[in-house]
Amino acid sequence: MALKPWYEVIKPRKDLRQGQVPEASEFAVHLDQVRDGRALEEYTNPALFFSRTYLTKNLTRFAAEALRRLSGERVETNAVFHMITQFGGGKTHALTLLYHLAQHGPESHDWQGVAKILQEAGIPSVPKAKTAVFVGTEFDPLHGRGGLDGTPKRLTPWGEIAFQLGGESGFALIADHDRRRLAPGGDVIREFLPQDQPCLILMDEVLNYIARSRRVEQQEHSSPDIIDQFYHFLHNFTEQIRALDRVVLAISIPSMEIEMGAEDRQTFERYSKMLERVGRPILISAEQETAEIIRRRLFDWQPDQFSPADQVLLPPEAESTCQTYADWVRSQRVQLPGWFPFDQAKSAFLATYPFHPTVLSVFERKWQALPRFQRTRGILRLLALWIAKEYQADYQEAHRDPLIGLGTAPLEDRDFRAAVRAQLGDDERLEAPLMTDICGKNAFAARLDAEASGEIGTQRLHTKAAATIFFESNGGMAGEHRKEATEPEIRLAVGEPDLNIGHVETVLEALTERCYYLLRENKRYRFSLIPTLNKLFADRSPGIDAERAAERADQEVKHVFARAALDIKFPEQSSDIPDRPLLTLAVLSLAYPKGDAETLRLIEDLTKNHGASARTFKSAILWAVPDEPLRLQDEARRLLAWEDIYDDMQADEGPQRLEDAQRAHLLKQIRENIQKAARDLREAVWQTYRWAAFLNSSNTIEFLDLGRNNSSSAPSLPDLMLQQLRRSDLVVEAVSPGFLTRNWSGLAQEWSTRAVRDAFFASPLFPRLLNPDALKETIARGANLGLFAYIGEKVGAEYALFYYNNKPLLHADEVEISDDTFLLPKKDAEVYLTNRGRQVAALHIVPPSASVKVGETTTFNVRILDQHGEEMRADVMWEADGGTINQQGIFTARESSGEYEVKASAHGQVARARVTIFKQSVPPPPGPGPQSTPKITGLAWRSKVIGQKWMNFYTKVLTRFVTDHTLDIELNVKITRSDGISAQKIDEMKAALRELGLNDDVQAH
Length: 1005
Description:
Structural class: alpha/beta
Protein name: ATPase (AAA+ superfamily)-like protein
Pfam families: DUF499
Shape: rod-shaped
Strand order of the largest sheet: 2-3-4-1-5
Distance between the termini: 83 Å
Number of helices: 37
Organism: Vecturithrix granuli
Strand content: 5-15%
Number of domains: 5
Oligomer: single chain
């Protein structure tokens, strides 16, 4: 169940609910004004005064002892009380309480807490006493008092006291002493003190009167006797009072050394020693009672809401809130400060409700040592403003904070900030960290809350954490008064039940990165009055021009991509990327992001062209393409700004008023920021270059999204790209021998190893080899497995090299990638192996002669005999006159009747047969034998050859003329396809022509 907000459980005083906050002076009691009836009602109305006064143990004891003495009791009583405590410590409030009791006597019995005082005093009734009040801030040492109002002129404190106690007759007893400013002796003092009733003398702000009297004497060049005379009077006065039964003197000498000169300090010490000798020192309140004093003064309570011990009884909802918080702090104690009383957690929350314990404890732990800190008066004014502003804001903005915490302080309110500054020394420089980092309209904490999502934003955790640091670190005080806020202290102040306490670290990190005055060192935080590095950075960063940032970003891109074994290029034109069979990563500059249409055109141009020529090895190029580069350039600007700040600091051009230790610390922080900015810049390169591009099987550029990555994703960014491309088999470490057999080149029977290698980088149909030398292992394995043979050029009838089926075993390091080594298909290798070492010695055509009609066919076979007369296999070239004959020996008669010759040749051996062509059904009689024919020195032939028969045409017809004839071939190639020829096919044709050393001028139409 959600906890009730504090303002629904208890109500502030009516004036605070209405936003009417008293001035600080209104929280200070002026005894003269109370005596004259000029003070606020809450001070002049004794019943109201007592209802808002919490009787601390010391205050109760002080009042009880004074009343006992006024009642005539001398046992365990003192006649002189001196309150030498810190300024604003509640002394005047105690004197006012005693004044009301003495003035009203038994009439006071019904006031809140009077019964407690009587019980402590052990007397049945409050004695009514004659009273005299002397307030040093009110009594003028030059003009005195009276004279124009029908009363005698009083020039001295003793004259004023005598007049208040005895009227004109009492004053007449010491009128001469007053006029001559001479301290009266004991006899005279006893005369003006009342003899027939109790007497109470209250003296406040004595040191102020003495200091002003000194200045009067200095200006008038009169004798300084008045100061000495006042000392003698006080000494004589206290001595006389000590000897009397029903006379009490309570005197206050405030200690506020920041306002004391050397003479003031001497005076303070002189009077303090005298009073310590004759009187009893009084401490009005203890630290643990401050909360009850504040709660009584600032909130409305009904009579039935007080316990017999005169303490406020909190409503059940408050008890529930405190119990829930107590359970929470105990569960989180390892993350909270060790000084918190975890074993009495509920009591700690109950004691300060509706304030969080840290609100009041921060003043006790860290503020009370400040020179201008006002323990009661100033804090009451500060908390009154706090309650009034927060009460209204919580209702208006629907804040439902269960407690008033340090983080909810209304620092955005000018009056509240003024009250805070007054406690901290009224340093105007505090406005800068307050308005810039914490509570200004555009303060970083407020902006971070507006940007945050979830609990962090709805709970205003950035603002709460920043305000907590401000209070815990004394708002930026330096020197011996400097304090720091620890992370456990911030967690305690900001955290609450059901809130993820881990958010605190997130919030502190964001504040440290953004705020201009927040310092962090070893998980300790404080606001400084001098701008921090964030401010220096904010001032420096806009001065880094875009060109310089872009140049630094380009440098980092080159640095990141240089960390790879892969060949890396940063091209600006096509000639920057070599045209070679080697995998190359081309990194585009930040000027060409992926979403730009010009980027695709550039990649296509640089992929397909190399200078003025067409590129052969288009598939060898992989592209690294940036995404939107703005973040990368921003990170470059950040790094440059920190480097410039460091240079300035080294040159002693940094913030002024820095001590050596501060400068050393700042330099350390700057170096850390430089290191962080350098890491962020590197990570930005990883996240910016998230696209890889390559030529796909459709001969178009394809992009691959690598995703959002960082430097921990792979050893290097090129490695990351290769990993992604390997998953799609676009890049491979190696291929199997079977891959080569399945993709055998159709250009020739023998496939050169160089052509094999080049195919992996020229054709997008092939995967890209990460290392071209891996092909040697593939070739060696394929040859050893008998899938193909690895051969060299022929020397006569023999290949210079021949590795096949482990005969002999081929090692990868023996494989040469060149134009002089080849792969031979398995069937051709088997033929070669079968015929190896045998020579064709004779050919015999069977039948040696045949007859055939025009247009009909007949078949000839050939027997090939080696040198041993044994048949063997060999490639045979058939030729025929009078018709055509194919490689299977099938002759088709075309010419008119007559005798013609059929010839078979293989390896230099020739065999001939005779064929007779006739028209009649019966062959003509044989004619005469063959006659000699003229010598033929040249051949020419022209006809169309369909593509499917080209290899057979070359093998059966042309190869016999290659070695010992001059063979010139002029081709007129025309290729058509009704649905169009792809650009990929055209590029492959050009590549093959260049591979054969032919021109690649292919005309498309």
